């Protein structure tokens, strides 16, 4: 009997050792020495753009909640070998793009002048009891559906990994909703155009008017010949 218990404990330890952590579900794609994309595996996730510069790190958009964005932030810091965040830019106020600003305590949050008003609905998700209950039930139902679907894809390593990633994503989101988290609006806003001079690279922020939202911001990086479009241009999966 004692031997059986010991074997059971050993099996638990071995299984826990091979269980993927959250970093397993974060993907990094290098664009250049100074720019990368980071995202959580799954369908409809946000491409997080990160830039390193002489004046610090910049992130364009933050994910659905802090417990989701946390592992993404950690992977970016590991990839660049630094954690001196200078700016957070929100391309607009939708949930995958502006919900985790609170993780970047020392950074300046930047967005269009309409962004604070647009972000009020994110605050309501925390303060409106009925809305919060509906959001929680919707997320819990999604989690139940994903958990029920997982056994059907065990023979496909890539599919099962994607679904496990989705399950971890919604577990973290539900935990954040249950505990509550801070929505941080921009401290630096602009009307039509604004340039962030980071020493060795410039970020040109441009607002062309209402598009996907009331606060859509394009970010052009001339040194990289790269345009970050937020959700104005996107595909069903990652670009």
Key phrases:
single chain; 239 residues; alpha/beta; Metallo-beta-lactamase, Chain A; 7-stranded mixed beta sheet; 4-stranded antiparallel beta sheet; 11 strands; 37% helix; globular; disordered N terminus
What does the model show?
The chain has helices at residues 2-18, 66-80, 115-118, 120-127, 129-149, 157-179, and strands at 26-30, 35-40, 48-53, 56-60, 85-89, 108-112, 188-190, 193-197, 202-206, 218-221, 226-228. It has a single domain (20-233), classed as Ribonuclease Z/Hydroxyacylglutathione hydrolase-like (Metallo-beta-lactamase, Chain A), CATH 3.60.15.10. The chain has a seven-stranded mixed beta sheet. The protein has a four-stranded antiparallel beta sheet with strand order 8-9-10-11, with no helix packed on it. Helices cover 37% and strands 22% of the residues. The protein is globular. The N and C termini lie far apart (56 Å). The longest helix has 23 residues, at 157-179. Strand 10 and strand 11 (226-228) form a beta hairpin. With 239 residues, the chain is α/β, with parallel strands linked by helices. 33% of the residues are buried.
């Amino acid at each position: 009997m004692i031997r059986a218990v010991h074997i059971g404990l050993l099996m638990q330890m071995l299984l826990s050792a091979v269980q993927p952590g959250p970093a397993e579900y974060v993907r990094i794609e290098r664009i250049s020495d100074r720019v990368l994309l980071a995202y959580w595996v799954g369908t409809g996730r946000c491409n997080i753009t990160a830039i390193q510069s002489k004046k610090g790190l910049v992130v364009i958009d933050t994910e659905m909640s802090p417990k989701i964005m946390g592992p993404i932030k950690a992977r970016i810091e590991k990839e660049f070998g630094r954690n001196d965040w200078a700016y957070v830019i929100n391309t607009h106020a939708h949930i995958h793009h502006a919900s985790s600003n609170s993780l970047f305590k020392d950074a300046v949050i930047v967005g269009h002048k309409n962004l604070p008003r647009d972000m009020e609905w994110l605050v309501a998700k925390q303060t409106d009891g009925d809305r919060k209950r509906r959001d929680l039930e919707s997320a819990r139902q999604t989690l139940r559906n994903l958990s029920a679907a997982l056994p059907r894809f065990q023979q496909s390593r890539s599919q099962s990994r994607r679904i496990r990633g989705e399950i971890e994503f919604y577990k973290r989101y539900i935990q954040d909703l249950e505990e509550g988290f801070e929505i941080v609006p921009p401290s630096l806003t602009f009307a039509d155009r604004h340039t962030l001079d980071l020493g060795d690279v410039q970020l040109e922020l441009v607002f062309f008017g209402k598009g996907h939202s009331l606060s859509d911001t394009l970010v052009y990086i001339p040194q990289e010949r790269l345009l970050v479009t937020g959700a104005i241009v996107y595909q069903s999966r990652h670009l």
